[in-house]
Specification:
The chain is α/β, with parallel strands linked by helices. The chain is 40% helix and 18% strand. It has 2 domains: 6-242, Acetylglutamate kinase-like (Carbamate kinase, 3-Layer(aba) Sandwich), CATH 3.40.1160.10; 322-465, VC0802-like (2-Layer Sandwich), CATH 3.30.2130. Strand 7 and strand 8 form a beta hairpin. The model is unreliable at 468-476 (pLDDT under 50).
Length: 476
């Protein structure tokens, strides 16, 4: 494959409106179909939540019910609900009776196959030599792959019905007896595709020897997407979202106030990911960066707008590009005898690692180590108990805060930290802590959770709206 092609990803929310993308994304409005494009698709909105668990609330789906409940009817009913949700999803997209019939049969075959597989596993695990825990990751991967396989199949039917030579490339490994690593799986799936005359529609989930969900869990589709772009030598990787990558959330700073970023670099993308506002999964960004493939983030419903380009360049112009916030837990360890003694930090880090707590940021001085983490208070109480058992004379406090960050590829000379502190004080907001590193890519402000939205609005007005020029976006 030559570098004349692009690899493009469509997320779940946009996939639920895929029929609206026929004109503008899959082919130019009023123009002929443009090939030399590979599309990687996510499951339709909400389907993966039903298959695994609700991403935000944690409400159990098929996987959670199967692996944690003794009630067979719980996961069986949940799987039936998935089939119904899949049918509702493609009925809202497909119109031709033959396509609807084919999609219904696809769903029936996959759902029945998954049901049979889970029954077999239950029977197998009724014997003492076998344990469900040995199969949990495989179950999670199999179920997750159902969603992407369905959306890719439906998109392929839709495109073919509308005169586009689309081709389903199912990497989910359904009933596949072969064993591949990720590169082999991708190469095998695309081996005889002619990009000049075909448009491959590829599942975001790829079954492989290393197991994508083991490391990336639900970030696997972007990993598949980036790996395809790197492996095939794409000229550009494109993510089609339902919004522009902009300077703040329009719902928080007001309509017409946010600016499309337009051009930034992978360093900023990493900072956004750290703040829970992923332009792309950090491991996927690393793959693209190492392969020298630039990333473009566009609004799928504004196809004439080039969106935001992300590459390895660094702007010579200083500017705050985005202000965003994240709810965090502040864990502060104070020990008077810490001065000059090694081991405290390593003990805290090991406890956080054991309990799978993600560190967002940290501060330390002579006798205090403070971590700002993303975790539940329940988990943090377990961490607290473990640390205090090791350092019984220490004082450890845990409280809920919010971190608001001003991010840009080059913040030199802008006095971002000081200006932000003055603006927050002027707005009557208390700042519990603040810091800016010497690399000048972000400044962080710790405020009460109740003040997060107002802090974002205040910092955006001070550091973005009155600073660099840019395109003002209307909120969707």
């Amino acid at each position: 494959m030559s570098k004349a092609h692009t690899v493009e990803k469509i997320g779940g929310t946009s996939m639920s409106r895929v029929s609206e993308l026929l004109e503008g994304v899959f082919r130019p409005k009023g123009g002929d179909v443009t090939y030399n494009r590979i599309f990687v698709v996510s499951a339709f909105g909400g389907i993966t939540d039903l298959l695994l668990e609700q991403k935000k609330s944690g409400a159990p789906g098929v996987y959670a019910r199967f692996t944690s409940s003794d009630d067979d009817h719980g996961w069986l009913d949940a799987l039936t609900d998935v089939g119904e949700a899949m049918r509702h999803a493609h009925q809202a997209i497909l119109e031709h009776p033959a396509d609807l019939s084919a999609a219904d049969e696809f769903v029936r075959e996959r759902i029945e196959g998954a049901r049979s597989c889970l029954f077999d596993l239950q029977r197998l695990n009724s014997y003492g030599h076998f344990h469900l825990g040995d199969h949990m990751l495989s179950i999670r991967e199999m179920l997750s792959g159902l969603g992407e396989a369905h959306s890719a199949y439906v998109a392929t039917l839709l495109l073919q019905r509308n005169g586009i030579e689309a081709r389903l490339v199912d990497l989910s490994g359904w009933r596949d007896e072969g064993e591949f690593d990720l590169e082999e799986r991708i190469s095998h799936g695309l081996k005889d595709v002619d990009l000049k005359s075909e448009m491959p529609i590829v599942t975001g989930y790829a079954q492989c020897r290393e197991g994508l969900m083991k490391e990336f869990d639900r970030g696997y589709s972007e990993v598949t997407f980036s790996k395809i772009a790197a492996l095939t030598g794409a000229s550009e990787a494109i993510i089609h979202k339902e919004f522009h990558l902009s300077s703040a959330d329009p719902k928080q700073v007001g309509q017409g106030q946010v600016r499309k970023i337009g051009h930034t670099n992978y360093d900023v993308a990493d900072q956004l990911s750290n703040m829970g506002m992923e332009a792309i999964h950090p491991k996927a960004a690393k793959t693209l960066r190492q392969a020298a493939v630039p990333l473009r983030v566009t609004n799928a419903f504004e196809p004439d707008d080039p969106g935001t380009l992300i590459d390895d360049s660094v702007s010579e112009a200083s500017a705050v590009e985005i202000v965003t916030g994240l709810e965090v837990v502040c864990m502060e360890l104070f020990e008077q005898d810490m001065v000059g003694v090694k081991g405290y930090d390593a003990t805290v880090l090991e406890a956080l690692r054991r309990h799978n707590v993600r560190i967002v940021s940290k501060q330390s001085n002579a006798n205090t180590i403070t971590h700002f983490v993303e975790a539940s208070l329940k988990t943090m109480r377990r961490v607290e108990k473990e640390i205090i058992a090791t350092y019984p004379n220490a004082t450890l406090s845990i409280r809920n805060l919010a971190m608001v960050s001003a991010i840009g590829q080059n913040l030199k000379g802008l006095n971002v930290l000081a200006r932000g502190l003055v603006a927050l004080e002027r707005s009557g907001l208390d700042v519990h802590a603040a810091q800016q590193g010497p690399r000048n890519v972000d400044a962080q402000y710790l405020v009460s959770r109740d003040d997060m939205a107002k802090a974002i609005e205040t910092l955006h007005a001070e550091l973005v709206s009155d600073a660099a020029s840019g395109t003002i976006l209307e909120a969707a």
